[in-house]
Design brief:
The complex is a heterodimer of chains A (292) and B (394). Chain A is of the alpha/beta class and 292 residues long. Chain A has helices at 19-31, 57-64, 75-87, 102-113, 155-167, 188-197, 214-225, 259-268, 280-290; strands at 10-14, 34-39, 47-48, 51-54, 68-71, 92-95, 118-120, 126-129, 133-136, 145-152, 172-177, 203-209, 230-235, 272-273. In chain B, strand 8 and strand 9 form a beta hairpin. Chain B is of the alpha+beta class and 394 residues long. The chains are: A alpha/beta (292), B alpha+beta (394).
């Protein structure tokens, strides 16, 4: 078991004829993902990496039975690509694209919420269930099958955490990159629910960062609803204030968003804290050990 | 991307948001002429810099404030003289302050009450939100922390805009007289429309003024735009004033890099924003001070990495560089080749510690090992941090 993706997931790539889309489609194929096709408007009938290319997502779905999509469409057209995937009824939409205008995402969010689709990202590394299915840009070899669920707002920081877990002998059930943009399809809480319900996930490691209040909300959820051991790291403890968070950005969360506030909320929920980025795997190990 | 107050007001005026008449002046004579042309008994002379807190800010070496009232053309010239080409320090500029290159001379108005409003995209609501408060003219972050009940917020759909009822709801909660509600409706709805049409990421009006005539006017305007949407707003991109920005940060942006200058001595070159922030945390954890945040992004090439080195080395405080790459899209061979090339073309003398992991890591390490450069390689984060801190302190 795992969450979101497994060996039966049938995946298409939107933007497969682009350089990056093709490179990572090949990477996913090499990992063993069941890639079944791709979509680029106007390039239907071509093949990339021996996979059929379709003009529309609906055609690709009908011809291949795809139930997941990986989006590499350039930023000006990416929100539309997400909407197309949702309209075609694709269950899992993973948007890798970085740089989508935030108001484009504000238009996409309510459509996704009212649909049967789940959106991961944008601006994320993707989702991987080690040994079964990789959808995204993460290096496959650092992962190993196991029982720790991993989720993060940052791509390369996730790789770092996974690598530490693997070296400590803790394999992963599924690793989910939520995405670094202000508006993303799935939150920590959405994924916590899935990990808590998944019998194959025994512990959860999360990586957050300064800004917003997603980590505080996740901490409150863990305190109330999560029975499995949880460890966390917050990036940006030493970041100077005001550089990335807008002035009014701090208002809506009523003074939340600092690393200190997040760490306090996480500790209060009984979550094991990684004191440095080199300590993420070890913090997970401590949390598991503490529960016996 | 930020713009000046006078530019924001031009955009707002065109969008139907009530603002006062004003003129930009780059010399005291122009300020004097502006006062005469505006023809009101009192004008505000306002320093134009990309930072807030100007009213309480002071010019270095004098008592001159960043915003002052002028009662005559001579007054306007005197205030402009005290500001132009001077360094203004406010709560938002940091102690080094910012040079004032132009002032905005704005006609006065009779103020009944000062309010606050802002629009931003709220992560939790998943939509833009109009925020308003009766605590105008004050430090709004302090208001939010101490009296969150004074902060009102109304989320709105970008395409439907703010509902008239939402504007009335705010007007009622702000305790505006009912005769002013139609002005509130017009003001708030036009403001929300402008935010969406211009792809702003922050639009802050502090203070928003209720005039004694019962109308609403934006007395100040601060606008920040979504960099990701500038491709569809060439006219706004043209408003960029690079003299207001850190030169190294402009250079970095031109090369597609994300760079923030800090005050330490260990330059950091990392891929991914989260890992870049964590690398700064790590350096500090081991007793060093980061000189910068630098994210080379997911798919950097040799030219970008070389430019990243040049930017880091342009900071005279840098005594050593830590490269931390976990390759996903970025292949370790790309970064290794770039490191070797950069060390040859840029020719730096400070110690360079490199930690590579991820896609094509073995080939990348081979490139470094066979390069004949003095690059120090590290295994893992702790090893890398210890090596760079030791090298800088040696």
């Amino acid at each position: 078991m795992s969450i979101l993706v497994n060996r039966d997931t049938r995946v298409i790539c939107q933007g497969i004829t682009g350089k990056v889309g093709e490179f990572h489609t090949r990477g996913c194929l090499e990992y063993g993902t069941r890639m079944v096709g791709g979509v680029t408007p106007g390039k239907g009938g071509e093949t990339v990496a021996d996979l059929p290319v379709f003009n529309t997502v609906a055609e690709a779905r009908d011809a291949t039975g795809a139930n997941a999509t990986m989006i590499f469409v350039p930023p000006p057209f990416a929100a539309d690509a997400i909407l197309e995937a949702v309209a075609a009824g694709i269950e899992l939409v993973i948007a890798i694209t970085e740089g989508i205008p935030v108001l484009d995402m504000a238009r996409v969010m309510p459509v996704v919420e009212q649909s049967q689709s789940r959106l991961i990202g944008p601006n994320c590394p993707g989702v991987i269930t080690p040994g079964e299915c990789k959808i995204g840009i993460m290096p496959g070899y650092i992962h190993t099958p196991g029982h720790v669920g991993v989720m993060s707002r940052s791509g390369t920081l996730t790789y770092e955490a996974v690598w530490q877990l693997t070296q400590l002998g803790h394999g992963q059930s599924t690793c989910v990159g939520l995405g670094g943009d202000p508006l993303v399809g799935s939150s920590f809480i959405d994924i916590l629910k899935l990990f808590e319900a998944d019998p194959d996930t025994h512990a959860i490691l999360m990586m957050g960062e300064i800004g917003g209040s997603a980590e505080e909300e996740a901490a409150a959820y863990v305190k109330e609803h999560v029975t499995k051991p949880v460890a966390a790291f917050i990036a940006g403890r030493t970041a100077p204030p005001g550089k990335r968070m807008g002035h009014a950005g701090a208002i809506i969360s009523g003074g939340k968003g600092t690393a200190e506030a997040k760490l306090e909320a996480l500790r209060d929920a009984g979550i094991e804290i990684a004191e440095s980025p080199a300590d993420m795997g070890a913090a997970m190990a401590r949390a598991i050990q503490r529960r016996g | 991307m930020k713009i000046h107050e006078f530019q924001a007001k031009d955009l707002l005026r065109a969008a139907g948001v009530p603002v006062l008449e004003g003129k930009v002046a780059r010399t005291p004579a122009e300020a004097s002429a502006a006062f005469a042309a505006l023809g009101t008994p009192v004008c505000a002379v306002k320093a134009q810099i990309h930072a807030g807190g100007r009213g309480k800010g002071k010019v270095v070496g004098s008592e001159q404030r960043g915003v002052e009232l002028a009662k005559s053309a001579e007054d306007a010239a005197r205030i402009a003289e005290g500001l132009l080409d001077k360094t203004l320090v406010t709560i938002q500029t940091g102690p080094e302050g910012q040079t004032v290159r132009q002032v905005f001379v704005e006609s006065g108005c009779a103020i009944d009450r000062e309010l606050y409003c802002a629009i931003l995209v709220d992560r939790a609501a998943g939509s833009p939100v109009l925020i308003a408060s009766t605590a105008g003219g004050m430090d709004i972050e302090e208001v939010a922390a101490k009296t969150p009940e004074l902060i009102l917020s109304e989320p709105f759909d970008p395409d439907r805009g703010l509902g008239a009822y939402q504007a009335r709801l705010l007007a009622s909660k702000l305790d505006l007289p009912t005769k002013s509600w139609r002005y509130a409706e017009q003001f708030f709805r036009a403001l929300c429309q402008a935010f969406v049409a211009l792809d702003a990421s922050l639009l802050e009006i502090n203070p928003l003024v209720l005039t004694s005539a019962g109308t609403l006017v934006a007395l100040d305007a601060k606008m920040t735009f979504d960099d990701n949407a500038l491709f569809r707003h060439k006219d706004i991109a043209a408003l960029r004033d690079e003299s207001e920005e850190e030169p190294a940060e402009i250079r970095a942006a031109a090369a597609g890099l994300s760079y923030v200058k800090l005050s330490g001595e260990i330059g950091c070159l990392v891929n991914g924003a989260g890992l870049a922030m964590s690398t700064m945390d790590l350096v500090k954890h081991h007793g060093g001070e980061p000189a910068n945040f630098l994210d080379v992004g997911g798919g950097a090439n040799v030219e970008q990495v070389t430019e990243a080195f040049r930017i880091i080395l342009s900071d005279p405080n840098v005594k050593g560089i830590l490269v931390n790459i976990f390759g996903g899209i970025m292949r370790c061979t790309t970064i290794a080749t770039a490191l070797v090339e950069a060390s040859q073309t840029v020719g730096f003398s400070v110690p360079l510690v490199v930690r590579l992991e991820g896609t094509e890591v073995e080939e990348g390490k081979k490139i470094l090992a066979s390069s004949g450069t003095s690059i120090i390689t590290a295994d893992g984060l702790t090893d890398a941090a210890q090596k760079i801190v030791a090298a800088v302190k040696a």
